[in-house]
Write a structure and sequence with these properties.
Blueprint lengths: L2 H26 L5 E5 L6 H17 L3 E5 L6 H8 L7 E6 H10 L7 H4 E16 L8 H10 L5 E4 L5 H13 L4 E4 L3 H9 L5 E5 H10 L3 E5 L25 E9 L4 H15 L2 H9 L3 E2 L4 H22 L5
Parallel strand pairs: 1-2, 1-3, 5-6, 5-7
Antiparallel strand pairs: 3-9, 4-7, 4-8, 4-9, 4-10
Length: about 325
Amino acid sequence: MTQKMMVAGIAVAALLGAAVTGGASAQSYPVKSIRLVVPYPPGGGADLLARPIAQALTEKWGQSVIVDNRGGATGMIGTDIVVKSPADGYTLLMASSAEVALNVAVYSKMSYDPERDLAPVTQVAASPLVLVVHPSLPARNVKEFIALAKKRPGEIGYATAGAGSPHHIAGEWMKLLAKIDIIHVPYKGGGPQLIDLLGGHVDSGFLVLPVVAPYLKTGKLRALAVTSLERSPAIPDVPTLDESGLHGLDVTQWWGVFMPAGTPRDIIAKLHAEITDIIKQPNVRALMTELGAEPVGSSPEQFGDFVRAEIAKFRNVARQANIRVN
């Protein structure tokens, strides 16, 4: 055998070995514990959805899937950790709409690009925000709220969970469409926001459905509309802002799983199949109903298209409403 033939043979063997090894690694994945980063403190929507998924994956695979809460900077600290992790399938992100689709539209500087640096796996669930008012405000529907705001320009406040949050985008979009002057009152999270709404220290606000639902039942807060294009099955009598005359307004809080960009496609496909199967389990669906969320389970391609559309939508609204966060 000539030297050339030997070199060629070694090269072919190396390629075949790499192909076999690559296939075997995907088939045997996972071979060690996995970290599921939640970029918020324990107890929030992302955390509550991540835990049953992590438990089910642990039971199915026989490898620990550990939930790692890394809150801060509207989800960007935890997301940055995932982006900078090896793209080997052993670091996952349970993200919400803020750090993936909204922040890029309102923050002047970010350490990552969601479209470039994250690989979508599946959208897990979605839930609308709810526009609520304190009972002392004489508005029982959106039409009355807008009329009152026009009579009292610059007097009515709307509370949000913070500047640049989905709540903030919803409020500014409402202002644009309704041509009203209401005042943004940002809080450091949903807890303080809720306390001041219940106390009547602020007239109105946007809240996530799981937080606000108990107070709608007792009459301590009044729901005027939801921010999704379709009514929520959890509160079907409450109309959407779209059907209340603010056409096209659609700000949905959603959650989904991502991996670092460059993660092998077969590993993404395997994880997608497992998570969408978990979403169908009765106990997980019951939890989502409790949270006022609807299960989704889209394909990686569908989820990627959805994220790109969300980013474009929020960029457009942020530009029109001049929303920027430094």
